[in-house]
Amino acid sequence: MKPAFLAFLAALAFAAFSLIASSVYLINDLMDLAADRRHPIKYRRPFAAGDLPIHFGLIAAPVLAIAGFAIAALLGPASLGVLATYLGL
Fold first, then answer.
1. pTM metric for this prediction
2. Comparing C-alpha atoms, which of 46, 87, 55 is closest to residue 69?
3. What is the dihedral of CA 49, 35, 84, 61, to 10 degrees?
4. Potential cystine with 51: which of 9, 19, 46, 86 (Cβ 3.0-4.6 Å)?
5. In 3-state terms, the chain is what percent helix, strand and coil (to 5)?
6. How many CB atoms lie within 10 A of CB 18?
7. Predicted local confidence at residue 1, as pLDDT
8. Rounded CA separation 42/5 (Å)
């Protein structure tokens, strides 16, 4: 394979992982909402502070995950497996 094509595949893998990681971040923020609101620093996070409505996270998290898995599907089953394992952890 040509280096440019390998770089393209790496960029796709990076994009897929970034989307899945963003989904996990949103889920974590939503699950820790009550604790974050009481925390001396974390209360400034967008959901805890009320800067982002909770329904945004409830919609965005699965959309980001689906987009990440869609990109990973282009890369093959190994990529899907790695990202599914990451999401599961």
1. 0.90
2. 87
3. -20
4. 46
5. 85, 0, 15
6. 13
7. 83
8. 41
Please spell the DSSP secondary structure of 21-54, one letter per residue: HHHHHHHHHHHTHHHHHHSTTGGGSHHHHTSS-H
C-alpha separations of 32 from 35, 37, 47, 61, 83 in Å: 5, 9, 10, 15, 23
- Cβ(64)–Cβ(15) under 8 Å? no
DSSP 2: -
Rounded mean pLDDT for each run of 10 residues along the chain, 89 residues in total: 95 98 96 96 95 97 98 96 94
